[in-house]
Amino acid sequence: MLKINPAVAAIEEETAFTVMDRANALRAQGHPVINLGIGQPDFQPPKHILEAAEKAVRDGPHGYTSPQGLPALRDAVAQYVGGRFKVPVTGDEVVIVPGGKVTFYFACQIFGGPGAEILYPDPGFPPYRDAARSSGAKPVPYPIREEKDFGFDAEEVLSLITPATRLIIINSPANPTGGVVSRAEITRLAHGLAKHPNVAVLSDEIYSHQVYDGVDFVSFLSFPELRDRTIILDGWSKTFAMTGWRLGFGIWPKHLIEYVKKLITVDHSCTSVATQMGGLAAITGPMDEIEDFRKSFQKRRDMVVTGLNDIKGVRCRVPGGAFYAFPNITGTGWQSRDLARELLDKAYVALIFGESFGQNGKGFMRLSYAASEADLAEALKRMKAFIEA
């Protein structure tokens, strides 16, 4: 009998994709499914991005690039990020990768291993836990609290650091909650980490453009004292509606780049050239449509939060960012896993049950409002009718 690596066997399926497959199967059978389970903007990428990628497919270049990415794209990312946050960033700190997940997966590979511990948010993006586990490290959850608007308590996080801790993963604005950690807590965490020089930070900032109501987003690049052990994860998928393009970037301390490049040559050699050319057009082109996307998400957020709070037994805080709502459904009498199953099978609305994001997600559901207003209105109508029946 074949023997499977236990670290690989322990990896769990990402529920959002399992639900997407189930929703697509029901839709193929003729059912009017509305999928609010997957975090995917319903917009098309701006036209100039499509044209740049089309030209690259037709005219080239068609060969390998540096494992680190096209120099022009890395320089453009450095200028873009440095300008946004008023910090110095250079192209040799940037690594272009096929999707944001690669950055945190590589960070776990670099800092993991037997005996290591990696801290991650709970509820949080499930692949954080599995990336840590597959590296051989012990994943250690830290709590994300509803009463803190789905932020964390810096002192509580710091208290979980042990001599075995090698990496802490931060995500703000967050998946699945939409929470944005306050500047005060981020600053307290950063100052506390100064006392733990052996702990690296992976800050997943993929939703940093999706913040609302003047919410104060703080990048971990803002703390120069941690720069030599801070990794920033970002990319094109959420901001530019390019989820299927698989294009992300990491900003790494220079002394870690050699390890990242080794992993790239083993894993994927380089990122698709045509995709990189599309990314270059996106990051150097006009941003007016990107701001329109953000405003549309904010309008949808307001609509969804109002609709959820109008359902008996459901309460939902107003998320400060991303495009997710994380309603508390304990007042309905349902278990979240059961409710998610029944809503899909009987009301044809796909959501994700909270426990799939960690034990602290119990009693919650994740709803993505990266869908049309018409679909959101109909989904809320169906949910209300089903839950209150």
From TrEMBL:
GO MF annotations for this entry?
A: L-aspartate:2-oxoglutarate aminotransferase activity; pyridoxal phosphate binding
Note one Pfam family from the annotation.
Aminotran_1_2
A biological process (GO) of this protein is: amino acid metabolic process
Keywords of the record: Aminotransferase, Pyridoxal phosphate, Transferase
* Cofactor dependence: pyridoxal 5'-phosphate
EC number, as in UniProt: 2.6.1.1
Please list the residue ranges annotated as the Aminotransferase class I/classII large domain: 32-382
Q: Quickly give the catalysed reaction.
A: L-aspartate + 2-oxoglutarate = oxaloacetate + L-glutamate
Superkingdom of the source species: Bacteria
The name this protein carries in UniProt is aspartate transaminase
Protein source organism: Aestuariivirga litoralis
Give the lineage.
Answer: Bacteria, Pseudomonadati, Pseudomonadota, Alphaproteobacteria, Hyphomicrobiales
